[in-house]
Design brief:
Helices cover 28% and strands 18% of the residues. It folds into two domains: 38-105, no CATH class; 113-268, Alpha/beta knot. The protein has helices at residues 43-51, 64-68, 85-89, 113-116, 134-146, 164-170, 185-194, 210-213, 232-236, 255-268, and strands at residues 38-41, 57-62, 80-82, 101-105, 125-129, 151-155, 179-182, 198-202, 208-209, 219-224, 240-243. It has ten helices and eleven strands. By secondary structure, the chain is α/β, with parallel strands linked by helices. Strand 5, helix 5 (134-146) and strand 6 form a beta-alpha-beta unit. The two termini are 30 Å apart. This is Pseudouridine synthase. Residues 1-35 are annotated as: Disordered.
């Protein structure tokens, strides 16, 4: 997250919770352009995908040991191709820890903001602005699920697609955390505000700390890409800008670490 000279601070929003907003105009759900399959690997990612009733599975390549490591048995008619570990290594990214399991499946269905904004103050929304590293996005998903966030929101461009790398980093959270991909992030933040959420952007130059800026009601945590931070238009659509109180000897944190800390702070605040 970058530092900025300007900040926008504010108290709790005057707007009342108006319930769910309608679907965004000119928006759409996941925005996934590829019609191809998604290939997942690793026990947690594959097991979560197999248990997800909203996921359409095509084929599982596996070792005997890999299938035995799964929680539960595969249906007798499930398409499995038995293979050696060396064969599986040729199906995944180089040096990827497939753990004897590679699953080919269809991408998850699109979601809309109106489907996930429940207004629960205990369940924050995480908004990412141009965070493109699938390892970071997967790690943020894992933290978001651990702290019971209601959704992850990203732009459909400048964000990684579903992939084995992202799913492995998410450790199963890809299948259970709603992920909304939108055309215009600024408009999405407007819709989030209309649903009663207080939007806090994380930036190293925020005048208040995150603990000071957190409201007692619904909150959306907005994080930008490492180095560049939030884009100006996204920055302008935040109700408050806050910083994490880190040592002056360290300029910033990895975005996934910052997200985890922010989610913990949101989970520990007093809610009314």
């Amino acid at each position: 997250m970058s530092k900025r000279d300007e900040t926008r601070e504010g108290g709790r929003p005057a707007r009342a919770l108006r319930g769910r907003a309608g679907r965004m105009k000119n928006g759409r759900g996941s925005g996934r352009a590829s019609s191809g399959m998604v290939r997942l690997w690793g026990r947690h990612a594959v097991e979560a995908a197999l248990k997800n009733p909203n996921r359409t599975h095509r084929k599982l390549w596996a070792t005997r040991e890999g299938v035995e490591s799964l929680d539960g048995e595969l249906p007798s008619d499930f398409p499995v191709e038995w293979a050696q570990a060396a064969d599986l290594a040729r199906l995944v990214a180089r040096d990827a820890p497939h753990q004897g399991l590679v699953l080919e499946c269809e991408p998850l269905d699109d979601l809309f903001l109106a489907d996930v904004l429940d207004g629960d103050p205990a369940r924050p929304v995480v908004v990412l602005d141009q965070v493109t590293d699938p390892h970071n996005v997967g790690a943020i998903m894992r933290s978001a699920k651990a702290f019971d966030a209601c959704a992850l929101v990203t732009q459909d461009r400048h964000a990684p697609p579903e992939s084995g790398v992202l799913a492995k980093s998410a450790s199963g959270a890809l299948e259970t955390l709603p992920w909304v991909r939108v055309v215009n992030l600024a408009r999405a933040l407007e819709e989030i505000a209309e649903a009663g959420y207080w939007r806090i952007g994380l930036d190293g130059e925020g005048q208040s700390t995150l603990a000071e800026a957190l409201p007692t009601g619904p909150v959306a945590l907005v994080l930008g890409a490492e180095g560049e931070g939030m884009r100006h238009n996204v920055f302008q659509h935040c109700d408050a800008i806050a910083r994490l109180p880190i040592s002056s000897e360290m300029e910033s944190l990895n975005v996934s670490n910052a997200a985890a800390i922010a989610l913990y702070a949101a989970a520990m605040r007093e809610i009314v």
